[in-house]
């Protein structure tokens, strides 16, 4: 994954942090397509702020899946990793309802801790370079 910047701690909603384990982390792609005017009708700053209220957010350069813009990757918490969870890639996250669904899932514990809401199955994808590894 390309180097990410803008690491921030979660807001008061970070359940995992209160429990003493490392919380989920979220990576948002913000480069050539994601987070740009090419994806119209999205308040990219609000999307990032909404996610940041639940977990640490890193803003990444291009994740090389531009056909899925806006891309958000939810990385499991330490508890989720212990349960065998892997990062979940979500694409075409271009409306506030989808962002809220992700925020709610992360607040509940995210990958490996809380079941992924069925609605997020519509956004989940495996990046091309990773399909052979799974």
Architecture overview:
Helix content is 26%, strand content 17%. Strand 2, helix 2 and strand 3 form a beta-alpha-beta unit. The chain has 5 helices and 6 strands. It has 134 residues and is α+β, with helices and mostly antiparallel strands. It has a 6-stranded mixed β-sheet with strand order 1-3-2-4-5-6, with helices on one face. The chain starts with a strand and ends with a helix.
Strand and helix map with partners:
Blueprint: E1 4-8, H1 15-18, E2 25-29, H2 44-52, E3 57-60, E4 72-75, H3 78-82, E5 88-90, H4 96-108, E6 124-125, H5 128-131
Main sheet overview? 6 strands, mixed
Shape: globular
| SSE order | EHEHEEHEHEH
- Total number of strands: 6
Contiguous helical run count:
5
